[in-house]
Amino acid sequence: MESLDNFKAVRAKYHNTKPMISKNHTLEQDVRPIGNRRYKVQRIKMLSDNCYAFLDGYSFGDDVFKWWGTPNATPTSREIHALAPIVWERVVGRNEAGDRISNEVIKIRNGTGNGAHNSRYVFLEEYLPRSIGFDIQNGKQFIYAWTDKKVREKFFLPKSNYVGATTWDQSQTLQQRGFDRSDDNKQIILMREEGTEFWCNIGHVFTPIKKRSKVDSEAKAELKPWIDNFWDWACALGTILPADDPEYVRAQKQVLINHGVIDVLYGTANWDGYKVRDILKSVSKGGSESPEGLALLVCFLTETEIKQATSPEDLKTFRAKFNQFINRSCSLVDKWEEPVGEVIR
Length: 345
Prior knowledge:
Helix content is 32%, strand content 22%. By secondary structure, the chain is α+β, with helices and mostly antiparallel strands. It folds into two domains: 7-208, no CATH class; 213-335, no CATH class. A hairpin with a 2-residue loop joins strand 1 (43-48) and strand 2. The longest helix is centred in the middle third of the chain and has 21 residues, at 217-237. It is elongated and about 80 Å long. 29% of the residues are buried.
């Protein structure tokens, strides 16, 4: 890692780095690694004499190491500027006294899509200047910077949904999955006068998405008699059913798939809550001959260790897990997200 703490150092880095030329890369591609030349996908690209982009490779907005889904789509300079993890710029302006000054601007962008972008996080940790920090808290990404307020401010760095018009136009997959053709401007932009220490935020200030959920208490109250019966049945049979046998569990889950109750054998299943409610009602106190009821019970048992319950406290724990299972499988939980808030400064 090389410390690139200001625009002057970034510009010098580009001009002092010899481009890689081989059977894989032409001089026109101008592949100049930021750090070790073995990691050529992590490179610095000149967009103009006053603008340099840091690229992490195989992500949206890279014109050499392109996103795998559209190998023939070459993003424009504007798209590279928008989608690059880090962009350094020198901007000439005037201060409050009207004197001509040079400012340096740094733009920081998260990955595109709601998944984890671990290589992007490592890249930001390595190549942001020492005056700007990167951190992850509770699965969310944040930027820290010493600002003109003389404090170390914290800024939420949201994930983007933008892929660039060039890539979007050539990928039905991205279109069907709801990615954006137009820039959503989910980025942090900081500026300071050249030669000074503190930054100011000149872009958006974002607030993290808040996930909310609420159980439909009225619907659950109507189901209470059947839920209680099913719990008694689970306690009675839970210690004898072979819920730790993979083949037995697979066969029981297949029963639920055949009846349209769940959609997959492995991973996180989607439940048809109304069918689950009908299954609960079919299970009478003391047991049932319903194959769907038995299969539902086995699904619950695979998420618990009810055989190991040896105390009233253990039973309370399993009852709590049972309530969570019922809420989820019966589609009793209404979930929503409060959107990312933003304030333009």
